[in-house]
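[Automated response] Your request has been received and processed.

Submitted sequence:
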Amino acid sequence: MGWNLKDGLRDCLVAAAPYGALLKAHNRRSPSARPQLEIFSSSGLPLASFPWKSGMVKQLGWTVSDDLLCVQEDGTVLVYDLLGGFKRHFSMGNEVSQSQVLETKIFHSPYGTGVAILTGALRFTLATNIDDIKLRRLPEVPGLQGAPSCWAVLTQDRQSKVLVASGPHLFILDNTACTPVTPPGLSPQASSIVHMCVSFSYKYLALLTDSGHVWMGTSNLKEKLSEVDTKIKGSPKQMAWCRRPKSQQPSAVVMWDGLLLVVGECKETIQYHLEDDSILVPELDGVRIISGTHHELLQEVPGACEEIFKIASMAPGALLLEAHKEYEKESQKADEYLREIKEQSLLSEAVRQCVEAAGHEHEPETQKTLLRAASFGKCFLSNFPPEQFVSMCKDLRVLNAVRDYTVGIPLSHTQFKQMTLQVLIDRLVYRKLYLLAIEVCRYLKTPEYQGVSRVLKHWACYKVQQKEESDEVIAKAVSVKLADAAGISYSEIATKAYESGRTELAIKLLEFEPRSGEQVPLLLKMKKSPLALSKAIESGDTDLVYTVVMYLKNELNRGDFFMMLRNQPVALSLYKQFCKHQEQETLKDLFNQDDDHEELGNFYVKASYKEQVCVYSSFFLIFLPTTEDEMRLLRFQRKLEEEKDEQLVGFSLQDTMTTLLSVGLHKHAEQLYKDFRMPDKRFWWLKLKALAEKEDWEELEKFSKSKKSPIGYLPFVEVCIKHHNKCEARKYVAKVSPEQKVKAHLAVGDVEGAAEAAIERRNESEISTVLSRCSATTDHLLVERLNRAKATVPKK
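Generated structure:
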């Protein structure tokens, strides 16, 4: 280990993260000095160190996303990043705060990282996911007078439970009940359970009794796998489950002072003597043992390695390895070994064993020896698929790079496959190892948006927070590095710069953002309104200009607002158009301010016509049953249309139509639509909005089936979503045209349906859109399928 600990791990509160990737943080407790919180890599290299200035820490632990949790005695949980930066804090509730924390366990479940607390009142409080805190107070354990001898958190049936040992009794606590349980076949000599541990996958459980017996079985306590007498009756320091995935042999590791004992299926045990204070870290495929001087991995020997390396082995992999050794010596024995393998038709199996064994070995020379033997065997096979061999070579090159002591992520191949490449890249990024992360992405040919571009974005966000360099230097460095990267939003990087107090740097970075829609919101947030308005006008997007104008209207006083618009003729023109339909009085003020008497006169003429039309519209609504009154209104509006302002009449007609629809007079609205020959699209839009505003979903469905919609069926989906009715929205998804199918599916939250539509159309843009809505952790199968489909799309 690279650290220099005078007293080893003695008097330290230590937490080590799983998957070998995160390393220890420990809190040195000294009576004469303030405790020091130190964070190290797996090789003992320091990452961060700072004096602890908060309350007494009861437990340290790591989250699934490399954050450090510090649980204090009062139930407050402080969250730090991997480099010691404070992120946030939260409380485990008033009850915990009042009765204080007695014991704590930090655990991982399908929902994320959880915290379980035993309070001074001997009650359990549980939070299954610290990113979405929902505290659960579990039922009371009957007859519990003091702290339980041991307890553990289980995850069963998508629910987190607590297993508690009180003397000889075991209880399972869930949301509603405390249920007594009895392990099948437990030794009758046991009078109490002194320690317990749960497997990495939460499927298996090991119990240590006061008689020295270790009971191993399933975590639901329905099946016993083994029971071994350790012949040691003292209470252990730690206990951990040690079993490889898919292994048929249960095994657990029990640690006392100076002694490590491995128990399994048989009555025999394996003993290791420890020279220093150590801690055990359970892993997917073994147990890590960390002391003040060493960091070791204890695991069951993988089957392929055992077959090849055991003494006098005649396994095909062992024979192939010997054949290759003899071949390098230019000995004819190589041919004899090969013939023996081929006669049994086991050459393919021999190659597979060598490749698999290479993945489990940590020494590069041993890996090379096994892979060379596999390559040698492949030469004598005509149809052996090369994918496994090539993939293993790539994986091992990446693993050897991250296992280097300067990086300090000692992953096994099994762990690497379980955690996925994306998580490994994230962990490299969290450690600011950007160059290594980029090289890994390029070597494994990861798609840019998931690989190089993502890493560069994180690098740029980190770069803009560095205070020692000038804005010009950082802006130039970022633009040069990101020049050829695809899919990077400069606005996100500029936002990070602005949050770090570097407004001018944020403005410089926004100059590189090609999308005005991404520039403008941040400029408004930074109070750079004139620049935001100029950018919106340059984009040619009237909706964006309206957005800025409405923002300025609410933020500025009336005089400053009008003055700014006068300096931007395009914005002024668009605002006048808006006022014509929405704010007539404001339009009059604008004409007065500009001394535009001609337009002011036109305004009064139009206002008088509108007043007459509104009067007759109201008259029409009051006397609606009278056909003569209805026709009188229609004739009046036609006369106005022939004589004067066509735009004004159209606007008034739309008002009348909207009013009719809003009060449910659909037949009269349709008659008006026919008589005035209103465009189909306009009428459908008005009726669609009116029915949605009334939430008349039954009438809306009838309307959609009346005839083919001239505006398509995506508006039906969108208007239902706008009014928070996904159930109704789904009815119209099937009717949406193929080119709008992806958007419709995404609107109702159907990512899989969107993926099917995008793949069927073989549209790269649509596939990318769906990918951006997928989660790398929960939708990894769908992401892989979309990436495969994207790769087959012909390039334009």
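Summary generated for your ticket: The chain has 31 helices and 27 strands. The longest helix spans residues 597-622.
If you did not submit this request, please reply to this message.
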